[in-house]
Amino acid sequence: MPDTSADPLAPKYKRVLLKLSGEALGYVGKSGISLDETKAIAEQLKRVHARGVELAIVVGGGNILRGAQFTAGGETIKPATADYMGMLGTVMNGLALQDTLEAMGIQTRLQSAVRMETVAEPYIRRRALRHLEKGRIVILAGGTGNPFVTTDTAAALRGRELDVQAVLKATKVDGVFNVDPEKNQFAEKYDRLTYEQVIKQDLRVMDVGAFAICREAKLPIMVFNYKKEQAIEKVIAGHPVGTIVTG
Question: Model pTM?
Fold first, then answer.
């Protein structure tokens, strides 16, 4: 890693997994990919990458479509099919993020759990690790390749597979709260939680499966607002941004 001894944003972690929802790359209140939002995130990732951090990114597809929207009105489209459609949306987001980063001079690799070799490599753990070691940003699309599995779970699984030191969950709120801050103005934010506190208080950090994976691996989870200035950089530097969940 480069010398960052005088850098206030010197990274605390060597290798991290960043979970980006599809909404982070989209417009507010409507579907599609916003090039402005994608570029804003890519610029942060570029600065993090320049500090020597190995970055794996799991992207969602909610800005393109959500599987639930096709099954809410009946059984015309089966739930499994709808989930596969959502996985294809994550690949579209991955392609957009990949080209945006490479336009900035950063080497990337897009890997998909749903095989489509004309646009993305198949996800292979050892290959992904090698890309990270060579300083490439690895973008992981297609979830796990299976229906009925959330992007949170895909992020937790990939984080454990790739031996990351922390899972970063980028959201549109400032961290983990005792109640929904978008519905209750008196919601209180937690700065730090243990896995046991999350379970005891039934807090929604990640879905149950994803949380169990991180807890078993003693993998720290950082929940933060990606919209805040230099948020990704500050979280990786260990600044008190958002909420950290650890043992």
Answer: 0.92
